[in-house]
Design goal:
The complex is a heterodimer. Chain A is built from 18 helices and 14 strands. Chain A is α/β, with parallel strands linked by helices.
Chain lengths: 432, 485
Amino acid sequence: MAKLLDKQRYKCALGAMQTVQAIDRALPILHSGPGCAQKLSESTGSSGYFSPNIFPCTSINEKDVVFGGVKKLDSTIGNALKVIDADLYVVLTGCIPEIVGDDSGEVVSRYEDAEKPVVYAPTAGFKGNNYKGHEQVVDAIIDQYLKKSDKKQKGLINIWADVPYQDLFWLGNLRELEKLIAELGLTPNTIFGYKRGIENINKIPEAEFNLLVSPWVGLSNVKKMERKFGTPYLHYPNLPIGATETSKFLREVGKFAGVTEEKVEAVIKEHEDYYYYLISRYADLFLENRVINKQFTVVADAQYSLAITKFLVNDLGLIPAKQFVVDDTPKNYRERITEEFKKLNFGIEAEVSFETDGYKIHEEIRNHDYHGYPLVLGGYYEKEVTENLKGNFLNISWPVQDKVVFDSFYAGYAGGIRLIEDIYTIAVSRFN
Amino acid sequence: MAKVTYSGVRESKPGRLNDLGSTGQEVSENFKKGCLKRADRSFAQGLQCQQINSLAALMSLEDAVFISHSPQGCVGCSIMAVDMYRVGQIHRGVRNVKNPHLIVSNIDQKSVVFGGEKKLREAVDKAVKRYAPKLAFVFASCASGIIGDDIDAICSDLQTEYPDTLIIPIHCEGFKSKICASGFDAAFISINKYILKHQKVEKEAGLINLFAPTTVSYADQKEMERMLQLLGAKVNYIPFYSSLEKIRKIPAAEASTSICKVFADEFMKTLWEEYEIPYSHTVMPIGIRNTDKWYRGIAKVIGKEKEVEEIIEKEHERIEPLVKKLRDRLAGKRVFICGGTGRSFAAAALIDDFGMELVGLETPTYDDDAQVDIEYLNGIHKEFVVDIANMQPFEQVNLVNKLKPDAFIGVPEWAAKLGVPTTHVLDGKRPTMGYDGLLFLGNKIADQLENPGFNMKLAEHVKLPYKESWYKEDAFKYIIREGGN
């Protein structure tokens, strides 16, 4: 696990309460110290049906530390079932119960016959970050709630992408991926966001295959589903942004799903035509009016660092300076991700650094020659360093303060256009 | 008898409790009779962690680094503090807006088994080398406390290694208190122990310590400073947007006061006991009555009773016609209030300026201080519900749904979904306090009442997440005596 964190980029495993929150009508129940929910929430976009102040919590005190908090956990779960109207209750444990040794799993097992499903994920903060916590929540649903299905639904595809809320664009991205998959004549199934929820969770074992669109997050989940339900998976390691990458994505998914080439190419052609209709109208902006500097850096999780690098190089013709992956990617995935950064058009390769220490990242940005003012896409912490360098800054990764996103997205063809809009809105609003 | 050192845990004070459902009359009588007993909730929703308050109290100090000796989630919401700090700098005209230096030692599984000392040393080491700060604060966490890291000893050892940085441990382990204001006390205890060190310094004539938490806007700071300057005082505004030098000046002051009731109240007692600095602890200066009371309190301490009356008279002349206009718009409206200890009672007093009627009050703690406010409110409002709760939205919506107030003041999210017009009172970016803040706040409430459209539409389209049966239950059903703490 990462050493010290200077300018932190993620939360702890208990932050997976947001993964639960993203499932319609699923309620996290926290067995943790007082205030963990509040510390792990976002300042905007978190006042939906269930919000962090609504999550039941045992708020462990000194006495519970000494004598154990299982009794309190039991009453909290039991009463949550009585008071709060949810479809799925997910008990999450924080640091304290796991240090003092509460048998939370045993308490949860008392609710096997409850009217609504209650599952449990151990998410102690000292064990991992919220990327890992996200996988643990999905694992808990697979292991404790879902059962193997004999019925398979032709063309039904479960889509998995990165971590809700940690990923600012999670909702819009998922919807856009669904749309693209549907255009291939397939039936997408996702569990996060509006009107997905428990009914879609129930369909998971019936899918023809799992489509994982992420460099690494969720790979252990789809492997687990392969073992448990016999569902094959396609691991597509790059969130497609813009024309080049989205067309590649559609071809690969189409091939895996057995969609005819004509069908796939027809979908691609229609999108690319419209995409280049828009691009050509604004080519004057790129070529003459606001020629932004060619060199850029992305400071984000593996997903965005890779996806945006590919987009800016392959579609916009920019040159990658060093890229930073800040999600504490497990070591066994790093080599494959590094290889992906080398697969860019015209033999261009991007250097990537897996780094969680923001101070070092800022030192490198300061010391790099961007041949002019840099374009930096990153977390809010990069605003200060980019401003000092008089560069263009776009807040695309956590932490986010500079941007309000309801259901906007960067995935797909339309997402690429959104990202260009965002970058050039900044460029034109500044005198450069 | 040996003097008992205050631990910083607000529950350690006898007679203070966190879990209670009652009414204004009942709670006041029971308190007088000594019949209030501590309780607990067998079902509760998330609270606020005191570590956040410790961090927030100090986050805007110059030349400082903040080290959270914790796993990686404990400063998960730091972006909110970063935002507050940046907005605060912009309001104060700072051109090169900075981020606070925030470092997490990142306690992991190994640390849980073998201790986190190495991680903490590395974090302090890097913090000092990278930022050469004058102050390095080390914040304890639940995990560091339970695994038994001796942060005092480690910091003291590191202090000899880094003589140019004051290394200050703060004991704000979350599980120790359900009252997040304990985190303020923990910060002040450490300021006294490691910076002031019980040393007396030369007095500065006319200097007043004005303690203010992060949630006080710059507009409010200016209003408080203006009022104190009218009394001829020089203001040492701390610890928000201040510095080591200004903290060192604390013992040089002739008097102290605070903007918030639960901020530096214990510390001001310590300043009296150890440095003989008199202080005024009254109310939060929101609304005419409370602003007068707050103003008179500090004026008395510095011997300006006559002067303050003259100023108050002038301010009233200026403000009352404007308040009357607001009263015409707001009189008779029934209000439910939910807020922190300081703001909830202050808001309850404020609504009297506007002729509004209190029907419910939700506040995190009850103690002798609260009793004074409740007795005052009982004299104005005949019957109102008291919910001693830190948020607990399930109890709140149960009560609001039954009481059907015309307006809601405080944390707005849930009442808004019931269609009640809401006004947010914890506004760290805009005016709330003093004579001018009163007008801003009053207009905000009146405007909201005139156009309740947003909340009504919201209520038409969204449902709160509670079962219908819950609204029929007693709101205080889950407050139990057994296991009270």
